[in-house]
Amino acid sequence: MRPATFNELNAEVERRRDAGDQSGALDLLTRSEPLFSPQAALTRMLRVELLARMDRATEAVDLLRDGLDRGYRYRGRWLRHERFAALTSQSDFSSLVERSDAQYERAQADASPDLGIYAPDEEARSGEQPVLVALHGNNRTMQDTVPSWQSIVADGWVLAVPQSSEIATTPGFFLWNDRERAMKDLETHLATLRSRLSLDPNRLVLGGFSMGARLALELGLSGRFPTKRVLAIATWLPDFESLAALFEPSAMQNARVHVVVGRHDTSGYDGSVRLVEHLRTLGASAVVEIHDGGHEEPRDMPGTLRRALTFLDSTSPGR
């Protein structure tokens, strides 16, 4: 079996482990680490954890050391979790945890937010411009996000793609897990956008993919971002109640939310459907568009974006 996505890999590893096939789970992780480069460091950590569970501490510590040599970054507190308790029997494990902590902190200190801005040609502009801010998913980058969203520029929209300043475990990739850091990054990006372009404040949409979609929903519907128009694609949402608890009821007035989810998205389908139903009960205009895929962008991303922005840019009531 070759998992098509990292989510599928995680699910299959968990299934094998729960069935008592730890060796099979380990073999699958070992074969899969090169296949999912953004999550290579996470896959390595899962291998180390599984070896610890199997009482193969020497191999686990050697694997961890090799990962750190490759530049993988792990917070020391993760490695101090009881899941790795068996590794404390190894004389050099403690020093590796300290090294990992230092490696992570250095990389995080060197990280800074970035912003890609893609606007219609000068001759196509007239007056204030509508803008879509698109947040990448976890373990992604600004560069690998732009191609999926760039079609909106031909339709007269400015596309702004921020890159988080929160580092992922694999070098070169980024996360949106730290909400306060994310909010500060986005405030900086908005100021940059406003200084460079003439933007229509009434035609601002906050969108995103996976964890970026979750962050867009949280910020847009809690009143912390200057728009209530949100485009959420493949939202990472296995815990609907946790997200719903963050919504500000007063932010629901005039809110418009377009949700896109794959029918086979195990981490987001049920939560996305419940989300739309919940938003409607709160008075927001919300729709869900379902495609036949999994935790991924729909195949016809340009068409999806066009439909979503038509809905989000409207003032008529949504279902």
What layout of secondary structure does this protein have?
Layout: H1 6-18, H2 22-32, H3 40-53, H4 57-69, H5 76-79, H6 93-110, E1 114-118, E2 129-135, H7 142-149, E3 158-163, E4 166-167, E5 174-175, H8 179-196, E6 199-209, H9 211-220, E7 229-233, H10 240-244, E8 256-262, H11 269-281, E9 285-291, H12 301-312
Parallel strand pairs: 2-3, 2-6, 6-7, 7-8, 8-9
Antiparallel strand pairs: 1-3, 4-5
Helix pairs in contact: 1-2, 2-3, 3-4, 4-6
What does this structure look like?
- A hairpin with a 6-residue loop joins strand 4 (166-167) and strand 5 (174-175).
- Helices cover 44% and strands 16% of the residues.
- The mean pLDDT is 94.
- It is built from twelve helices and nine strands.
- Helix 1 packs antiparallel against helix 2 (22-32).
- Strands 1-3-2-6-7-8-9 form a seven-stranded mixed sheet, sandwiched between helices. Strands 4-5 form a two-stranded antiparallel sheet.
- With 319 residues, the protein is α/β, with parallel strands linked by helices.
- The radius of gyration is 21 Å and the shape is globular.
